[in-house]
Design brief:
Length: 411
């Protein structure tokens, strides 16, 4: 995006590789990001079938379809967080959002919907960072007043995902900085400019706010950044932290994990998602500046229908005869891939894949099914969103005590 004031390119990026860092997501080939290669390059771990089974055993419920279907595909130390949890040391969840646009799209919703599942399955507290400072220092043309206003507005969409008001603390950097600042200072002292250049691709023309920012995203990974929320009892001195995020955020947490032992603190664990393909297909992720590349939570039902019918890339045959003869290429078919993510009925997804892949179902039918699934999802979101008031936002953002424990359901 030309109005962005951000690192041009990560210097560690080689020409034939996918580009994935907090500011760029671009596949080198037609088939999209090579996530297996990313795991290797980043040094994370794939999420194994055994690990998923372990999550199911501990939470005594089926794992989220996004774990089973590989949308959340990679992690750092998730196993360790589970060990501690089972041994009676609960973790807290930490995720965030950079408020750069008025409304969120489906891709933005993924980490939050997954975080909701984790909060409900493990019954643990959650903190959500709104980085009005980040978007101000990295984007041209956005005033701090504007990013601060967008933070409050985006908070409404985040709250509408369904987080537990008793167990969720939302904070905005420019307001909460006083509590974060001691850990921010400790982290800043541990990372040299050269390291930041290596990790984030900063250079001599990057502004000081950009150099300073990574420590601000790192600080909430440490429970001592929330003394006013978690208290200062022994359980809050060094509580495990689990961060659900899209894989492009990993550089921040690699840096954080490198600092942790030198601060005498635990490394945060991370669980990574893939990106949601744009409606145009797997080459890029949804782009907030192209309205037809994504479905927004504010889209009307008519818009959703038009976008899918008109813009969703199809892997089906050009004509009915061709589709019947050869079937669809499911790998690149956007309607099918979206159904794999948003239709949670395993048997139906399997059936559509089989029938559509074999040419017994037409693209139009698959699109119609996707339209109905997304209409339901977005309508439900919009209904919850309509009930979120400024007072609701204030309540989620109020500094108040949230115990660092596992809250068993009352039922
Ligand atoms: N940098 C993220 C963004 O631009 C926002 C963010 C802050 C975040 N802290 C986080 C995302 C922790 C995931 C996890 O949207």
């Amino acid at each position: 995006m030309e109005d962005d004031q951000q690192p041009t390119r990560n210097p560690t990026h080689a020409g034939d590789e996918d580009e994935v860092d907090p500011w760029h997501v671009k596949a080198s080939g037609e088939s999209g990001i090579d996530y297996g290669r990313l795991i290797k390059n980043f040094g994370c771990e794939p999420i194994s079938a055994e690990l998923i089974e372990r999550v199911e055993r501990i939470t005594r419920q089926p794992a989220h379809p996004w774990l089973k279907r590989g949308l959340f595909f990679s992690h750092r130390d998730l196993d360790k967080v589970l060990d501690l949890y089972e041994a009676g040391t609960p973790f807290y969840l930490y995720t965030g959002r950079g408020p750069s646009s008025e409304s969120l799209h489906l891709g933005h919703l993924i980490p939050f919907m997954f975080t909701l599942y984790l909060q409900q399955a493990f019954k643990v507290p959650l903190v959500i960072q709104l980085t009005d400072d980040e978007k101000f220092v990295f984007k041209n043309g956005l005033s701090l007043e504007k990013t601060a206003r967008l933070a409050k507005k985006n908070a409404k969409d985040i709250i509408a995902v369904g987080f537990d008001p008793e167990r969720t603390f939302i904070f905005q950097d420019t307001e909460y900085i006083r509590e974060l600042y001691p850990n921010v200072c400790r982290i800043q002292k541990l990372v040299t400019a050269n390291q930041a250049i290596g990790i984030f691709g900063f250079d001599g023309s990057s502004n000081l706010g950009q150099y300073a920012y990574p420590a601000i995203q790192a600080a909430p990974s440490f429970s001592t950044s929330f003394k006013c929320v978690f208290g200062d009892g022994p359980e809050a001195a060094n509580a495990p932290c689990l961060i659900p995020c899209a894989i492009d955020q990993d550089p921040f947490f690699r840096m954080t994990r490198d600092c942790a032992p030198r601060m005498g603190l635990r490394k945060p664990a991370v669980i990574h998602s893939k990106f949601l393909d744009s409606l145009q297909g797997p080459k890029t992720k949804m782009n907030a500046s192209d309205a037809n590349s994504s479905i927004y939570l504010t889209d009307t039902l008519a818009q959703i229908k038009t976008k899918i019918n008109k813009y969703a890339f199809s892997g089906g045959g050009e004509t009915r005869a061709e589709q019947e003869a050869h079937g669809a290429n499911l790998e690149v078919d956007v309607p099918y891939q979206y159904l794999r993510l948003f239709l949670f009925d395993d048997a139906r997804v399997e059936e559509i894949g089989r029938e559509y892949g074999a040419g017994r179902m037409m693209t139009g039918q698959v699109k119609a099914e996707l339209i109905s699934v997304l209409t339901e999802l977005i309508t439900a979101h919009q209904e919850r969103r309509a009930k979120v008031t400024d007072e609701t936002v204030a309540a989620f953002m109020a500094i108040r005590h949230i115990p660092l424990d596992v809250k068993e359901n009352l039922d």
